[in-house]
């Protein structure tokens, strides 16, 4: 049986495209670090944001105003970039709500501007649909959430 050269080339192209799609995008690990933590609680906001070194680069104080943690495993969050999510412009919204903890930067007075690493956060728990930007099937940016 003779194998045609074009069939071999087609097979190689398919293998490369499948393996490229299976590799996480560069922003995926940062997305996980900043937004996915199944054991997160409202009491852990301050400690987790400091431990994970979540900062707002290119700002005067370095403190991120708000950070949302999704209380789920990475498999369920990644599925939003596939069948568990619905396209919404260049992003995807989850079909089901997720429990989240929203950590907000605390300011004593309106004119107080804490600076990194002295940022203090307080959290609230909620259930929301998440909106993420995906690249090649991998979540890379937490865009927003929608109250259910």
Automatic annotation (TrEMBL):
It is found in: Secreted. It comes from the Eukaryota. InterPro entries: RNaseA (IPR001427), RNaseA-like_dom_sf (IPR036816), RNaseA_AS (IPR023411), RNaseA_domain (IPR023412). One of its GO terms (molecular function) is nucleic acid binding. CDD domains: RNase_A_canonical (cd06265). Residues 24-146 form the Ribonuclease A-domain domain. GO terms for cellular component: extracellular region. Keywords: Disulfide bond, Endonuclease, Hydrolase, Nuclease, Secreted, Signal. GO terms for biological process: angiogenesis; defense response to Gram-negative bacterium; defense response to Gram-positive bacterium. Residues 1-22 form the signal peptide. Belongs to the pancreatic ribonuclease family. This is Ribonuclease A-domain domain-containing protein.
